[in-house]
Fold these 2 entries.
Entry 1:
Amino acid sequence: MTSDSSTGAGPLAVLIGSPGAGKTSVGRRVAQRLGIPFTDTDALIESEAGMAVADIFLNEGEEAFRRREAVAVAEALLSHEGILSLGGGAVLREETRERLQGHRVVWLRVSVADAASRVGLNTARPLLLGNVRGTLNTLLQERTPLYESVATDVVDTSGRPLREVVDDVAELLAPASSTSHGREVVE
């Protein structure tokens, strides 16, 4: 279920997961290790909108942000040829889940406790204002089945140093590990 490498179109891998899973940190480091580009759809949205994600939520609302996000994901899935990190809620839209079919999708799974400690209590993430731990718990309950439905690989990031997670994702994506497609890495 990887993207069609014969055309060169589409990302090598798409990283999904909740806030605090490490999508941007892991994605950036894996891309650097593999010598390929890294893109985060939130950064694409901010560039196109000329404002921060938090400001989009404030000024336009979540639904407007999700529409922008769906467009950014669709375009990146067609044009980006490296590691692509999606925002935690990108999988909420059915059209995005459908577009992820046929791509290598790595779910960076994280526990509520680890996600909360990573994002901190003073977060600028619009959906996490207030009770960070409670909100993350609700988001994970809502989104876990969606992450599971599109993931081709799962890497558990809970209680693990960034270096180990980067090693696991890079190993999954290395040409020699193509036969391990679909395995779950838990350490």
Entry 2:
Amino acid sequence: MVAEEVKPETTEAAAPTAAPASEPATETKSATIPEPDPTKRYFWGTGRRKTAIARVRIRPGDGKFEVNKRPLEKFFTEEKDRQDVVAPLKSTNTFGKVDVFVNVSGGGITGQAGAIVLGVARALKEANPQYDDVLRDGGFLTRDSRMKERKKYGRRGARRSFQFSKR
């Protein structure tokens, strides 16, 4: 029992010394977005989800977010979709520091939001490769490969059969 009591005390004593060492690491990960090359005006990222395709451009700015030339609040009426779209920016502490311009087509509202998330994450990674670990840990750089299953012949849908009549 004595050894068990000593063990938590040593881990508690080691924890405060480890915490300040991790704080500077987060400061380096929250580095700002550099200015793009003079030949390029934006950092680009492409995102896909189901049948939706989003082309995302970001540049250093004051936090403007436009989707199909409309403000984010006008395009996405659901709060859940708005939170999903800005999640990569908040995880990298760049929300309000970059301008985001998105052209999205195809799919539905939720599919378009998922495509924008992937596009924004890829553009942030292109702008600053230090964001890779943060974005990957948040799951923003993973393409969701789930698609609608195709309709099969001899059936009403992908799996649904026609109604069977015994008589």
